[in-house]
Amino acid sequence: MSELLVYRNGELVPDSQAAISIHDGGFLLGDSVYEAVRTFRFVPFHLEPHLDRLWRSLTYARIDPGMRRQDLHEAVMLTLEANRPLLEDDVWLYIYITRGRFVNNVQYYLPATAEERRPTVIIFCRPLPFAAFARGYEHGVHAVIPPSRHLPPQCLDPKLKTGSRMHLVLAEFEARMVDPEAWSLILDIHGNLTENKSGNVFLVKDGALYTPAADGILAGITRATVLELAGRLGIPAYERTLQAYHALTADEAFFTSTGYCIMPITRINKVVIGDGRPGLITRRLLKAWGETVGVDLMEQARRHLR
Ligand code: PMP
């Protein structure tokens, strides 16, 4: 066995055979919700909060996963266990649930009966891009504010973790047109900072942390963990309305996301942040994170540099 295994509706299949129907609403309409969990020492980190958020997404999207939460939990563990012999280091664990396949595929948008629509549940692992993480931890990443704005909560609420991500993909493209190395940092329709395609944002000013409130963003589990860590380390932290002005004049800035946890930002719109290197508080949080999970994040990532 040399291929990773994918959980697909109750069976484990080799990655190359883990196809789904072209009539699946997840493919046709982006009609899906998902979670991305990561492991530390091959144990899923904060799996319960991820499943809580997945269940909220399912509820809001009115998708019936066709299985109990406990069964899904077991399916995640089964998938990890089955792949464990092939894993050289920690991985992503993705859980995708789509509203399913249109059996009567004449009119894709029409609600179908339970018999016609069975949800598609997919769980798979992927290697984490550690080499890129290592370069980011060391030098920081660039951010660019793209012209596209985030969706307001009155539309496709960003609190929902959905596979409908065209707006986030376009924002990322736009950022890279300005700076090929940049990650997007997206504003809402009022010009306030929100998040990017896969991460939340924090600024550091005069020793305190600032991050946008969780109204118009995905409430990141990493974001919540950083706020908790800050509390433990005695670093004041505030949820605030922030604009580009605050970002460009910050002492430090970083993104947070499940994969890399904390990623320093050293340029925003080509303006150098702080002294142009990952800041002290950012590095302190990274170190404290590592101590909490028993894995030195920077060391782990550096091992993958060649
Ligand atoms: N915002 C968006 C849009 C995301 O997709 C993600 C990644 N799940 C995040 C923020 C960060 O969330 P988390 O810390 O839970 O990975």
Walkthrough of the structure:
By secondary structure, this protein is α+β, with helices and mostly antiparallel strands. It has 2 domains: 5-128, 2-Layer Sandwich (D-amino Acid Aminotransferase, Chain A, domain 1); 132-302, D-amino Acid Aminotransferase, Chain A, domain 2 (Alpha-Beta Barrel), CATH 3.20.10.10. The chain has 9 helices and 14 strands. The strands form 2 sheets. Strands 7, 8, 9, 10, 11, 12, 13 and 14 form an 8-stranded mixed sheet that branches. Strand 7 (141-144), helix 5 (166-178) and strand 8 form a beta-alpha-beta unit. It starts with a strand and ends with a helix. The structure holds 4'-deoxy-4'-aminopyridoxal-5'-phosphate. Residues 36, 195, 197-200, 218, 220-223, 256-258 line the site of 4'-deoxy-4'-aminopyridoxal-5'-phosphate.
Blueprint (SSEs and pairs):
Layout: E1 5-8, E2 11-14, H1 25-29, E3 32-40, E4 43-44, H2 47-61, H3 69-83, E5 91-98, E6 120-127, H4 130-139, E7 141-144, H5 166-178, E8 182-184, E9 200-205, E10 208-211, H6 221-233, E11 237-239, H7 244-248, E12 252-257, E13 261-268, E14 271-272, H8 280-293, H9 297-302
Parallel strand pairs: 7-8, 7-13, 10-11
Antiparallel strand pairs: 1-2, 1-6, 3-4, 3-5, 5-6, 9-10, 9-12, 12-13, 13-14
This protein binds 4'-deoxy-4'-aminopyridoxal-5'-phosphate (PMP).
